[in-house]
Amino acid sequence: MFDAITWIAVAFAAGVVAKRYGLPPLVGYLVAGFMLNGLGAEEGPVIAALSELGVTLLLFTIGLKLKLKSLAAPQVWGVAALHMVGMVAVLVPVLLAVGKLGLPHLAGMEYGPALVLAFALTFSSTVFAVKVLEEKGEMGSLYGTIAIGILIMQDLAAVVFLVFSAGKVPSLWAVLLFALVFARPVLSWLLERAGHGELLLLFGLTLGLGGAEVFQLVDVKGDLGALLLGVMVASHPKSGELAEALLGLKDLFLVGFFLSIGLTVAPSLDMIPTVILLLLVLPLKGFLFEQLMLAFRLRARTALLGALALFNYSEFGLIVAAIAAENGWLSPDWLAIIAITLALSFVVASPLNSQSHVIYELFSPRLRRQERKRRIAAELEIDPGDANAMIVGMGRIGGGAYDFLVQERGLRPVGVDADPDSVAKQNAVGRNVVQGSATDADFWHRLHLDDGHIKLVLLAMPKASENVFAAEHLLKEGFDGTIGAIAKFPDDEAALRAAGVHQVFNLYAEAGAGLAQHVCSDTTLALDELEASGAEPQR
């Protein structure tokens, strides 16, 4: 037990270093495992148990996020399926051809192992993509939702592989698993009453891990049980909160998985040529994603940013390789090769994603020439109609500002939000809201402001950098009306004013004044309360 705690402490230190350089902490965990292996450390039962729990919870949380509606779009399932088929079709002949040249670890490779290896390399990292999208504040953007949808499709393909890789014939009792469908109302009832604290976390653990155990009892892969139990409650309003509650615990357990990879196999110098070969495949992987998205009538910017978010290898590919090695389909050395390649792919992809908007601006003329003439509905030109005000970012603040302009000022505002679900909900309650990402330079080209109707723009996005970007592009498009924006810190206020914002509302500074004004809006009541307390009111 002491050894396991020590290994986890080392993994923590390595994860902190990785994060310091803008990389996902799992890169540090892999490096820590290799370092400990080199010092003679062994996996041990605790790390092995954490590894198994981490993978199971990962699949359960994927099930919680699985919304069939989000996967139904052709630009999601079509791109995911064609990309996987295309990459396998290219990689298998390449691996076999290079193997005939005698490259270490590929020499003598046969068709079956090459197929499994190519399949593992088709996956992109969910962890990396979510991290990038969250840091850029673009989780709800069109390219962000498409990228996440593609990743979920890939994860489902991996789950199918995991199920069939078990090599077991389900027992006759497995037919009883269909009865779980009738347990859905009970699970929803329990989730509703689990509250928001430790009971919610305990419910998630019980459902995910318990579901895996139930499936294993009838000789069905437990990971499938975890996924399906997650899907059964995915439509519940609290499924997102449950996924958030499990996030930290899942990531903690996955530390065991990444550590176990490094502790199981050690890297060697003869792996370097193979790692370089796999890294050279990355541009092909990204290019294929971009071309497929263009073929499905997405704009060049959406295609490029989506491809960059998926421009890496995946921890799921590592899981597939681990199962293949366990079944004897791949040499255990491939775990080290894929782990090293995975980490280096993050190193390559991180700066590309941090500068993705700059890259697009640099190559936009050439990229736009590749666009199809027809576009999907979410990529069409945006006409604000007869609106005379615009609110960008329709969260709680934006929604409140919208209602104020309508009810108190008699204006006709139009709202803008990047999240399609949010747009649908806003329109359902009678607000005029269009979908668009204000951090998309092309959005401002697609938005018709040249008629001069809109005289007021309020920027209510949560990040100051997003509001700065929007203000700068508003002015580039010739907007000559009033621009207002929200901020949280004094330096944000300065940046917004430098970008051309006329009025800045500091949320923290104004919240206290707003609270006092709201409570004391009835002056008579306020004075009566003061007098009753014995204080001398100021009249």
From TrEMBL:
<dbReference type="InterPro" id="IPR038770">
    <property type="entry name" value="Na+/solute_symporter_sf"/>
</dbReference>
<keyword id="KW-1133">Transmembrane helix</keyword>
<comment type="similarity">
    <text>Belongs to the monovalent cation:proton antiporter 2 (CPA2) transporter (TC 2.A.37) family.</text>
</comment>
<feature type="transmembrane region" description="Helical">
    <location>
        <begin position="252"/>
        <end position="282"/>
    </location>
</feature>
<keyword id="KW-0472">Membrane</keyword>
<keyword id="KW-0812">Transmembrane</keyword>
<feature type="transmembrane region" description="Helical">
    <location>
        <begin position="44"/>
        <end position="64"/>
    </location>
</feature>
<feature type="transmembrane region" description="Helical">
    <location>
        <begin position="199"/>
        <end position="218"/>
    </location>
</feature>
<dbReference type="Pfam" id="PF00999">
    <property type="entry name" value="Na_H_Exchanger"/>
</dbReference>
<keyword id="KW-0406">Ion transport</keyword>
<feature type="domain" description="RCK N-terminal">
    <location>
        <begin position="390"/>
        <end position="506"/>
    </location>
</feature>
<dbReference type="InterPro" id="IPR003148">
    <property type="entry name" value="RCK_N"/>
</dbReference>
<feature type="transmembrane region" description="Helical">
    <location>
        <begin position="111"/>
        <end position="130"/>
    </location>
</feature>
<feature type="transmembrane region" description="Helical">
    <location>
        <begin position="76"/>
        <end position="99"/>
    </location>
</feature>
<dbReference type="Pfam" id="PF02254">
    <property type="entry name" value="TrkA_N"/>
</dbReference>
<keyword id="KW-0050">Antiport</keyword>
<protein>
    <submittedName>
        <fullName>Potassium transporter Kef</fullName>
    </submittedName>
</protein>
<dbReference type="InterPro" id="IPR006153">
    <property type="entry name" value="Cation/H_exchanger_TM"/>
</dbReference>
<feature type="transmembrane region" description="Helical">
    <location>
        <begin position="337"/>
        <end position="363"/>
    </location>
</feature>
<feature type="domain" description="Cation/H+ exchanger transmembrane">
    <location>
        <begin position="9"/>
        <end position="349"/>
    </location>
</feature>
<keyword id="KW-0813">Transport</keyword>
<feature type="transmembrane region" description="Helical">
    <location>
        <begin position="142"/>
        <end position="164"/>
    </location>
</feature>
<feature type="transmembrane region" description="Helical">
    <location>
        <begin position="170"/>
        <end position="187"/>
    </location>
</feature>
<feature type="transmembrane region" description="Helical">
    <location>
        <begin position="303"/>
        <end position="325"/>
    </location>
</feature>
<dbReference type="InterPro" id="IPR036291">
    <property type="entry name" value="NAD(P)-bd_dom_sf"/>
</dbReference>
